[in-house]
Write a structure and sequence with these properties.
about 120 residues; mainly alpha; 2 helices; 2 strands; rod-shaped; hydrogen ion transport; V-type proton ATPase subunit G
């Protein structure tokens, strides 16, 4: 009977060992599945992020233009405005100086306190 008990104990210990191995293997499989799911989720998140970033860039380009485009437009507008100003100066420079040359000071009059007060007369 003692050998029968020993044999029963040995069987129980072996069964317990197999059960522990199965539990350990199940835990490893679970850990692998969790790791795989995490990697898949990370890849899916990155794909979604890239897609949304692309959509945003397309929206921005369509509605606002790129920052480089905006800066280039500002530069072009500034250059055009400066050219207009330079053209106006060039056109009106002669008229300005010709009007200035026909005005000369008349310093023959003195103010009531003896100070010099210039009066301008137009020479035609």
């Amino acid at each position: 009977m003692a050998s029968h008990q020993t044999q029963g104990i040995q069987q129980l210990l072996a069964a317990e060992k197999r059960a522990a191995e199965k539990v350990a293997e199940a835990r490893k499989r679970k850990a692998r599945r969790i790791k795989q799911a995490r990697e898949e989720a990370t890849a899916e998140i990155e794909q979604y992020r890239a897609e949304r970033e692309k959509q945003f860039r397309e929206y921005e380009a369509k509605h606002m233009g790129s920052r480089e485009d905006i800066a280039a437009k500002i530069d072009r507008d500034t250059e055009e405005h400066l050219k207009e100003i330079e053209e106006n100066i060039r056109k009106n420079k002669d008229a300005y100086y010709s009007n200035r040359s026909c005005i000369e000071p008349d310093d023959r009059r003195r103010g009531s306190r003896g100070r010099h007060q210039e009066e301008f007369k137009v020479i035609r």
